[in-house]
Amino acid sequence: MVASMDLLRLRYFVAVAEEGNVGRAARRLNMSQPPLSQRIRELEAELGCALFVRTPQGMGLTQPGEVLLAEARQLLANAEQARERVRRAAGERELRVGVLGPGEAALSAPVAEAFIRDHEGVTVRLVQGDLADPTVGLAKGKVDAAITFTPFTETGLSVRTLREDRCFAALPASDPLADRSSLVRADLYGRVAVCLPEGTDAVFRGHWEPYPSAEGPRVHSLDECLHAILWQRAVALMPEQAVRSHPVEGVTCIPVVDVPPTRLVLAWRRADRNPLVAAYVDAFTSVMAPGTSR
């Protein structure tokens, strides 16, 4: 059974099982729904049994599905440990850290010193994220940890808070709202507003798009947001850190008082047993902030 099932399909199965819904799992995996459903059907065909009970409310696990979920989680954890052991044997040890938005948090010299002091020879590679996936590929195993902004779907992840930030509206300096000291989200209605890519995590999208059903320019990065503001007179929502670290002439940023604060967080897969991930989390939080995890 293990020989015939690839790890990617097991990741897909675990995501659907944890979300209880193919649509939510597809958003978590940053993929479309039809191919995810097809992979689950292929897995059921291989095993010769139904893994899910499909109802209008979602996907519930059958008894074989419950067994496979426990086995799949263990297999994925074992695969991660095996990968780390092979890297050690080859003298190649690498930790991939994804960053969404400004990378200042990941560029902390004290964090680097704290980690390298005890892990000489380990390469920490930075992976710049895309707004389409706030976890920068954690669910698909593209990175080992992610420094990102909430809110997003946290199923299967451990999250440690580093800092809380206010949310700001970024808009053209010529906009009549630019003279205001604060705004509410409704003030932005009717303006051209940036949109996040199709398939973006619904929780993340609901928080960061200026208002529902906006039909403005689609953006994948902070720079694309700023470009849309300058060239298309669009409005966008941004965390305070991004506002402070990326001042742009012609763009005014104003706090939006009825949008809940965002959190800068460090996230990693809950089932990940890679000791380098645990060490990085410990080094990062001991220097940056005490935070909380779950």
How would you explain this protein's 3D organization?
The chain is of the alpha+beta class and 294 residues long. It folds into three domains: 7-86, Winged helix-like DNA-binding domain superfamily/Winged helix DNA-binding domain (Arc Repressor Mutant, subunit A, Orthogonal Bundle), CATH 1.10.10; 92-163 and 262-288, 3-Layer(aba) Sandwich (D-Maltodextrin-Binding Protein, domain 2); 167-255, Periplasmic binding protein-like II (D-Maltodextrin-Binding Protein, domain 2), CATH 3.40.190.10. 38% of the residues lie in helices and 20% in strands. It contains nine helices and ten strands. Strands 4-3-5-10-6 form a five-stranded mixed beta sheet. A three-stranded antiparallel beta sheet has the order 8-7-9. Strands 1-2 form a two-stranded antiparallel ribbon. A hairpin with a 2-residue loop joins strand 1 and strand 2. The longest helix is centred in the N-terminal third of the chain and has 27 residues, at 63-89. The protein starts with 6 loop residues before the first helix and ends in a 6-residue tail after the last helix.
